[in-house]
Amino acid sequence: MKLWEYNLLSRIKRYWVPLTVIFLLLAAVFGYAYITTPTTVTKEITVTRTLYLWSGGIEGMGVVVQPNPIWDVGRKVVLPIYPLSIMPTAEVELHFNMSGDNVNVEFERELKVVYYLSYDKERVVEETYRAVSNTSTGSSFADSLSLNISDIFNRIELTRNILKLPKESVGVELVGRIRYSGTVNGRPVEGTQEFRGSISFPYDGFYSIASDLKNGTQAFTETVTENRTVNQGKRVMFLALSALSAVLAGIAVAVGWRFNPAAYNVNEMELEREKKKLAKWVSSGRLPERLSTERVELASLADLVEAAIDMNKRVIHDPSEGVYFFLDGGMLYYFRERITKGEK
């Protein structure tokens, strides 16, 4: 056993009872902290969820009326520009759709076609050409109107010829207005939407239809309860400290009951420590049996080594005799190991 181990065990032996009590109390405290530290925490948070998605708009297409080598009569086509000579009729549609869980909504809507003539961006003439209103329930609808574009064009031309305004501008406006109310997934909903398309005459004998398409999301907020895992690292630390304190309490009890300081020689341990510390200044050798010189005995190995260093000598160790020595100027300097078993 090394000296530091002996000293440590001796101190534990001396105070093993209070140490055991302290470590047991620590084990209990850390164990209680481990048990009572919560593993989860409940919080109320506000979250935003999607209630429904909506999409809708006004779109138009030309209807082939006159026979031609390109399209069959009656076919509906979508083009960037339409010839009046082949497609004097157009069809416009107002449509709307809501997607969600258990959509039950009533739709009130109106689709109106208005032609106008303006002077310096101020409308002088505005007439409703056709309008349709409907009501239905469900999650979607689609209303359409058939328009005689040639007739609308002729009416606009007649108005222009009558007024003959300078800086005039003409056009056709497609207006769709929707009002809805009902429930989606049991939640009450209501709202309005408006779509505006147009019909223009960019060139003589041609017209174009501009659509208006939109979509969106309707969300709602609600408060929900959330459970989060917490304190995992802290609980592991408390458990480890509780276990460590219990182990230390057991060690204190074991040392207090079983360790006997009197069974060890303190002088021997101190000498062993000193030997290791001074080993680089000591060599092995043998003390001559007959050596008629004056002798000087030093009190410790450390004193002998210091004297040898001062005299530029090296200490010799004779293990058979248990003596350390060196010679200088006919004088023998030595230190003899004195080990008494059971000595403290």
Automatic annotation (TrEMBL):
Protein name as catalogued: DUF5305 domain-containing protein
InterPro entries assigned: DUF5305
Domain of life: Archaea
Entry keyword set: Membrane, Transmembrane, Transmembrane helix
Transmembrane feature ranges: 15-35, 236-257
Pfam families: DUF5305
